[in-house]
Automatic annotation (TrEMBL), chains A, B:
<dbReference type="InterPro" id="IPR002933">
    <property type="entry name" value="Peptidase_M20"/>
</dbReference>
<protein>
    <submittedName>
        <fullName>Acetylornithine deacetylase/Succinyl-diaminopimelate desuccinylase</fullName>
    </submittedName>
</protein>
<dbReference type="GO" id="GO:0046872">
    <property type="term" value="F:metal ion binding"/>
</dbReference>
<feature type="domain" description="Peptidase M20 dimerisation">
    <location>
        <begin position="199"/>
        <end position="357"/>
    </location>
</feature>
<dbReference type="Pfam" id="PF07687">
    <property type="entry name" value="M20_dimer"/>
</dbReference>
<dbReference type="GO" id="GO:0008233">
    <property type="term" value="F:peptidase activity"/>
</dbReference>
<dbReference type="InterPro" id="IPR011650">
    <property type="entry name" value="Peptidase_M20_dimer"/>
</dbReference>
<dbReference type="Pfam" id="PF01546">
    <property type="entry name" value="Peptidase_M20"/>
</dbReference>
<keyword id="KW-0378">Hydrolase</keyword>
<dbReference type="InterPro" id="IPR051458">
    <property type="entry name" value="Cyt/Met_Dipeptidase"/>
</dbReference>
<keyword id="KW-0479">Metal-binding</keyword>
<keyword id="KW-0645">Protease</keyword>
<dbReference type="GO" id="GO:0006508">
    <property type="term" value="P:proteolysis"/>
</dbReference>
<dbReference type="InterPro" id="IPR036264">
    <property type="entry name" value="Bact_exopeptidase_dim_dom"/>
</dbReference>
Length: 459, 459
């Protein structure tokens, strides 16, 4: 193992140069205008996999964007690790808030990243993180230390709901058969307190539309006499959460996992630096569901957030219009035992019920995802914990994260294997935001931890 | 007068062709991208004025878009009518709702306009209406029947708050001195019940911004633990109007004119066809301030409307973001004795007070305007009423409209003359909306009414 880590140490600069190549590709899956870039990115990932020494590298066509596959099978009697990642990225808007263009990566030091961080869309989510696996595989191949079989899949639709992945996994069950799935698409609690993610929230995402009059109206001639869809939508959104931070949707909490007082006490041991948290996002105070800590609100409790709203005139200057329609995008994070189907249905029913008499409302579901939990008394968790403890030289704790990776539940069902969420980002990395970045320290600790996980797991 | 009306009759088709030339110019004052079109439109208006026989035609530079001036002074002992109009138009968006491109005028028959209507942005507001004055002047010149002096000003910034007009009027007080101002930028109650507009509401227009976290956040990692500016803004908008349709801003109704029961009874005599009203805008029911009719809500009562709202991700698909900021455009229509300064200040104070602890709010005022009333016992009103009764062959009633033409109050103050609002549109003409149109019947009745007004007023 020492020689693998030495090899990694010697090639550090090269890894950055190569990652920059990937980061320069604007592989935005949500926007059809970037189709060619997404496809180009798939080809580049395949090239890197081949160069790393993987066999049978393929850019597998799907109904959507391709899935890149590669493998190194050394002994059928050894366990097999399936590595998953995604090469697509979130749209970069609002563009004007980026210090430099989102697809022109650069390195800059920050308070949290004194060794420097890579700034670019996708640097942490997920190009910088899945690329660690390609480089770790390469290091194990070059030093002849690969301790088990490895398969890799990198998809191009994670940011739009992994629409083609489930069919692909079902059709390739044999090819993808494995003992464990390893994913780096999450963050650790902090560089001082590394963690393995043992829980993820699920997701229900809907778009809503409120229609009042059948055309835009002049607000001077009609104002005050007709339902204004912006006001109606505002009232409806306001009514979705009460003064205690509770979501008012009927039956919303019916199936929510009750986390024991012991577990809550355990999880609140994580140094919850509220002052730092508030400062990092420029707030004087935080708020949320009554009776829970910030840590709990963002991990073991379900939430509802409006992710976008629009209607009427939103250009420069003034226009006195009452729009015919107003729209919003609303997402709910789910916890164990809630399902996206259940919650989307409950939301739809409730939202339709909230609508006043003189408007029409429409609810369109987007993608959803199941919540996921990896118990901390499993072999999978222990292999990851030990690997990271060696790499970081610190105790590693289990940690439930607020985000969603809906595919973990699907993997478990189809491939009958647990996913290990060994991500290395920080929650301050601004993923999905302007100036996304990924610490160099985290990038290297990740590349080191991966061969250690393989070694621990293959034991 | 008979020969003037005959002349108009003979030139009907030509008027349409000429108006189409003006309607093809996309003179959108709100969007700097259309600057050249606005300037081109000013030149064309000047050309039409000259061809009509006006003297001293000028395209007068201002700090913003130019004001076109022209005059025909025949005798200092005769009264002088100042005609006002505007050649700029509203932005045409949402473009996809137009049946044909907004700057390619065409004629089509509709249920309300069995003789046909001109469809184009600006057809009713205000190119089709100010052009009637140029053609009426031309007819009086050609038939040598001009009964008094006339001055014309046509501005290019009405849709963005007439920013340069007040300075221009102040600097040219002598040049613009007049006995009455005649404006066609309003609508009649219906073709069956023509009206002269005797009241207009004022306007206070603001843009608001709510800032939560100092950057966009991932809703999985932060959702439920920080104030989401979209939710906060929605709650604040919801709180601006109570369940009885009353605006909750402190002191909002302090100065509102109390309209007598007699006047309310008189105004409600106008055939208020609720079924037609609802059908024309596709609603099953209407709503508004409790205790008032639709007619009252849109004329003698002040109102508040959100004209635009935006924040977060508003593109295709799903993005799980909590935006740093959310925005809205909000306008209030004012009635006599309210002033835009007073109401903008009260709004700002109240909105800042409504803001919860952990967000910052910003209120930016756009243009405002004073309400206006023309008593029905004046010479000005009577001249207009008689002119329209001759042209339409029907009784003409006074009518208070809900819209705003802020400059009427300014004219009264600087030029010490009353404005007569003799507009000919219908409220179903979709001004400020897709498929704006102006009835041919209304266009011709307007051109006929104007010389009759001149004659009545000069008597």
């Amino acid at each position: 193992m020492k020689e693998t880590l030495n090899y990694i140490q010697e090639n550090k600069q090269l890894y950055i140069d190569e990652l920059f190549e990937l980061l320069r590709i604007a592989s935005i899956s949500a926007d059809p205008a970037y189709k060619d870039e997404v496809l180009k990115c798939a080809d580049e990932v395949a090239r890197f996999l081949e160069n790393a020494g993987a066999d049978n590298v393929e850019v597998c066509a799907t109904k959507g964007y391709p899935i890149v596959y590669g493998e190194k099978l050394i002994d059928p009697n050894l366990p097999t690790v399936l590595v998953y990642g995604h090469y697509d990225v979130q749209p970069p808007d609002p563009l004007e808030l980026w210090k430099k263009p989102p697809f022109e990566p650069y390195i800059e030091k920050t308070e949290i990243h004194p060794e420097g961080a890579i700034f670019a869309r996708g640097s942490a989510d997920d190009k910088g993180q899945f690329f660690m696996h390609i480089k770790a595989l390469e290091a194990m191949m070059k030093t002849n230390t690969l301790p088990c079989n490895v398969k890799c899949i990198f998809e191009g639709e994670e940011e739009v709901g992994s629409k083609s992945l489930e069919a692909f996994v079902n059709e390739n069950k044999e090819k993808l058969s494995c003992d464990v799935i390893l994913i780096s698409d999450t963050h650790i609690y902090s560089n001082e307190q590394p963690t393995v993610t043992t829980g993820l929230r699920g997701l229900s995402y809907v778009e809503v539309e409120v229609e009042g009059p059948n055309r835009d109206l002049h607000s001077g001639l009609y104002g005050g006499a007709v339902p204004n869809p912006i006001h109606v939508l505002s009232r409806m959104i306001a009514n979705l959460i009460d003064d205690n931070g509770h979501i008012t949707i009927e039956g919303f909490y019916d199936n929510v996992e009750t986390v024991s007082e012991e577990e809550r006490a355990e999880m609140n041991k994580l140094k919850d630096d509220q002052e730092h948290f508030k400062k990092s996002i420029g707030l004087n105070g935080v708020e949320g569901e009554k009776g829970y800590t910030t840590l709990e609100r963002t991990s073991i409790r379900p939430t509802l957030d409006c992710n976008g709203i629009w209607g009427g005139y939103i250009g420069e200057g003034a226009k006195t219009v009452i729009p015919s329609k107003a729209f919003a995008k609303i997402s709910m994070r789910l916890v164990p035992y809630q399902t996206p189907e259940e919650i989307t249905e409950k939301f739809t029913k409730y939202f339709e019920k909230l609508a006043p008499a003189n408007v029409k409302v429409k609810v369109t579901p987007h993608h959803g995802g199941m919540p996921y939990v990896l118990p901390s008394d499993t072999k999978e968790f222990r292999a990851a914990k030990a690997a990271m403890e060696t790499a970081f030289g610190k105790e590693v704790l289990p940690y439930r994260s607020g985000g969603s990776i809906p595919i973990t539940a699907m993997f478990e069902q189809v491939l009958e294997a647990k996913s290990v969420l060994m991500g290395f980002g920080l929650d301050s990395d601004a993923i999905h935001s302007p100036n996304e970045h990924y610490g160099l320290y985290n990038f290297y600790k990740g590349i080191e931890s991966i061969p250690l996980f393989f070694e621990n797991y293959a034991k």
